[in-house]
Amino acid sequence: MTRVMVFGSFDPLHEGHRSLFRQAKRYGDELVVAIARDVNIRKLKGHEPRQKEERRLTTVEREESVDLAILGDEEDFLKVIQEQRPDVIILGYDQQTFNDEELRERLAARGLHPAIKRAVAFKPEMYKSSKLKEQNHKKTGLKE
Fold it and tell me: Which domains does the chain carry?
């Protein structure tokens, strides 16, 4: 059985994320989705998550393509990969926590050698979390 893994905030979940799940599922039999912890969203993105991690986890768990949804680690981004041992990792087209080569090197140092691939963007002009957030602010007149 081939295990595939993706990562993200999914805050909120949208069609671009669903496309990522479908693309990832094509590479294997089992899709594991790691959801960013609230503390890591604050660290990496510099803002509060719109939805708390438990709600995002529950939402992702309900997705048809997803076999297992889990919360990431609060301190070590790679720990969840070490625990799940995927055969393939699919990164979002715009994920930038690590570049592909740096990720390969860090995983190899832990004895892990999954294939690493990039997903293709799905209508990024519409389905990108930052764009959706911006559109919502325009509709409501609210700013963060």
Answer: 3-140 (3.40.50.620)
Q: Which residues pair with 34 in a beta bridge?
A: 7, 70
Long-range contacts of residues 136-143, Cβ cutoff 8 Å, at least 24 apart: none
Question: From the CB of residue 45, how many other CB atoms can be counted at a distance below 10 Å?
Answer: 14
End-to-end CA distance of the chain: 44
Q: Which of 31, 41, 131, 11 is nearest to 89 (CA)?
A: 31
The whole-angstrom separation of Cα 77 and Cα 82 is 10
Predicted TM-score of the model (pTM): 0.85
Torsion of CA 48, 51, 57, 63, to 10 degrees: -130
The model's pLDDT over 54-102, given as tens digits with 9 standing for 90+, comes to: 999 999 999 999 999 999 999 999 999 999 999 999 999 888 887 899 9
Q: Do 15 and 125 form a contact (C-beta atoms < 8 A)?
A: no
